[in-house]
Amino acid sequence: MHPLKLTDLQPDFLAKKPILLLNTAILPIHSLVCYIIVDALPGAASKLPTEIWLHIIEYAKKDAKHEAVQPTSIAQSNHGTILHCQAVELDLGEFADRAEVEAAEQWLQSPHTYDQQRGSEDVFAAKVVTNRTHAILFPSSASASPGAFVPPALSVPDCLFTAITVPDVISWLQNGRCWICNGDRDICPGCTGGKAQWLDAFMGCGELLACPLCMGLEFMDVDKAFLQKYYWDGLPPHEKAARDARLHARWAELGYLEN
Q: In the predicted model, what is the mean pLDDT of the chain?
């Protein structure tokens, strides 16, 4: 996933109704900084030293709480573009094979388009959470106040994310719970009772392969090819170090180091 930007709000954005992830802990800070930039809260930022802002940001990041949302409307104001979103609860069902995981990721990008093409063949659903809506401001450069004071640490923090994948759902919405690896983030690709075969992750025992579900199918494919290359001779030390770094970076990207 990656932060949603103003340029992502193309004419077909609302029609696709993509599933987005909103960091509700960062949202208040995002809103405050935006309104400081457009000088809608004159003097608000200058009352706090930069060091306090730094602590506020770091605390909010550590207390990250995400929820799934869908865009409902886009409005223009004197301060910029406002995206209105509705909170939803996701139900992706249980995946029987790789094709179903890939189908779920297509649905996450454009539920409306996917449902029109596939009808009721699949069971993916986004249930509206009543009375929980959010408004996210994207300040325009024209509305920014030349004299507004913005602490250096508070360039508008990202709070809304798009291009959501199944690993993102597992990590940020399901507290990292994965029924394939039980939270280990890797599997023995020869001893999973058929699970590895379902997700094209099967190979010989003796190695721990990145979990295809909570680490991602593409990441698993790369890891599998890498392990197969050195399966009989073992990983050279420098290659093992490089792989360990890739795994650690992926854990950090998905937030598993905090779970």
A: 82
Q: What is the pLDDT of residues 191-233, one digit of tens each?
A: 766 777 788 888 877 788 999 999 999 999 999 999 988 888 8
Distance of CA 143 to the CA centre of its chain: 29
Q: State how far the alpha carbon of 28 is from the alpha carbons of 161, 175, 202, 231, 247, in Å.
A: 15, 22, 45, 50, 32
